[in-house]
Amino acid sequence: MKQLLILSGKGGTGKTTIAAAFIKLSAAKAYADCDVDAPNLHLIMGQNSEPGEIDFYGLPKAEINRELCIKCDRCRQNCRFDAILVNEEYLIDAFACEGCGVCEALCPVGAVALKPAVAGELMLYLDKGRIFSTARLKMGSGASGMLVTEVKKQMRSAAENAELAIIDGSPGIGCPVIASLSGADMVLIVAEPSVSGISDMERIEKTAATFQTKAAVCVNKYDANIANTARIEEYCRTNNLPFVGRIPFDPEAVKAINEGLTVIDIDCPAGNAVREVFNKTTKLLFDTSTI
Amino acid sequence: MKIAIPVDEKNMEANVCISFGRTPYFLIHDTESKECSFLDNSAASSQGGAGIKAAQFLVDNKTDILLTPRCGENAAQVIKAADIKMYKTIPGSARDNINAFAEGKLPVLEEIHAGFHGHGEK
Amino acid sequence: MPGFTAMEKNSMKIAVLSGKGGTGKTLVSVNLASAAEESVYLDCDVEEPNGHLFFKPENLWEEEISVKIPAVHEKQCSGCRVCVDLCKFNALAYIKNRLVVFDEVCHSCGGCILLCPEKAMNEKEKIIGKIQKGVSGQVTVYTGMMNTGEASGVPIIKKLLNDSRKAKGITAFIDCPPGSACTVMESIRDADYCILIAEPTLFGVHNLNMVYELVKLFRKPYGVVLNKCQEGENPAERFCEEKGIRILGRIPFDNELGALNSNAKIAVRESEKYRTVFLSLLETVKKEVRHEAAVNP
Asked: Fewer CB atoms inside 10 A, N or C side of chain A?
């Protein structure tokens, strides 16, 4: 199975829109949405059935047994995460708790215990021979990297024989991105032609480089700023990065998405540009002469 | 000496697991007694630092040799500090690899990947 | 939630959030801060801070932010391994009578230091990022920057909010990270009011719903700004109407604004038209905050 990961550094560049179009164009039998904080891919892929859902357990969280608590305050004084609140009773702020276990170890009367906590849900859609793996992280949970890993594991075990898997990655440069990079054969970076977009693209490119993953760059909504688009192309030339195309801003495309279609389901300039980017990207992905 | 191999299932014909830190089981083969035992890897369900925990587990079990397809930076640090030698496995079963090792056919594992630094693996 | 800040004249903390990146959080927070007579801008999106690219702040002052990592005093270590077994993050290993600490995996909980029976563990500082402070016109700009791959930006955000408390009597605009993760929660903890930014797309509604749930959970007063508005259906507007959410303003999708933004220019400082738009939005927000303070003291 070849894994193509689509990343953008910044949110809102069009990663999911492009991922959806790629899935349609390639008729990929396996795809995943690793943006577990705010999954969006399912909104345009249009599943026909309900997904199988599994609880995802993240960090265990502390719980205080009020009946045993003697209010000695040792736990609160030693909590580095400000996760112990006092409001007549001692309570754990589950959002701040990191499951370190210090309170449990320090409590003189055994009133604090770490208990497994559901941090999100893994979802698996099985539809006409296609596997779609995704997940949703509960608000405030810190276990996104781990959940991304589970999403990919779920996809791989459900779709062992798929030739190509398209992965809609997470925004940012933190652990969910690192987790989505592992096992990827190639990453397509979708850049936005703005000063912030360029800065974010550079950060993500450097991160991918430390993993020695094959990378390519494309620009979305390029006509919003031709000068910055040129800057991105120059950056690619200087850094020996394949530049696989530019996609124009297209109001027809926005309309299509709002109707739950992908940009290649209708005939529009953005759709045509995406097709070209797809062709160039897959050529690089399946080209065994490049490392 | 004791040889450890990460495996997907508790039998000799099982495939070598592609992940070291999150392998479900370790096969431990004793070259003198020729016995094999299977140990559960409690590091598999860790939030982070699975490689470190798995490596510590092997150190505590007096492992001498580790046969694995890959190993991350942090785990490798533990393995090397304990003077455990690492060899790279060939595709196939655990049994295939034990035999290949005995015949001196397995290369030393050189490439250590950057690892996930506490954030989960493939 | 305790908070008397809104009662102090002009000393409001206004957080700007969105479910996803790219909806216009930075656009709105940067321009609102610029429209105000005097303000503080806090960039809490420590993974990808962008506000400073617009403000280009001067008179820069930087402070490194560190967390505490354990370091073992080898002579005192008895090899009891209490720390190794206790660490929930597997950041400690004991090999050949030596304790090894794995810095990047450590969550700085302090457990091993507290519980070592031989008192053999000390703490050392590990730098995870920095805070930059500067001025741009009448705006004091605070930017949080986290180093790549670090476990959590929360300590940086805590310090940012702490440092800015010194500026009394001035309104602060908090540019939050996208989503609803712990970093966002930390950013809005002390906010008096939350502005939710929404895009008029199918994704936009879904993402708006996420932060809507978050601000309700934290019992923060909130309102929505619809960004990139075009002709035709606006699913986000419909959502607000259905849920009875106050719409504070609408920013049209406009090539002029897009161009200014993509060149990191502050619209309020470059265009009379946008100065008016954001001044008006600022007035609306201030009215909302004062109303909230009066109704829910």
From this structure: C
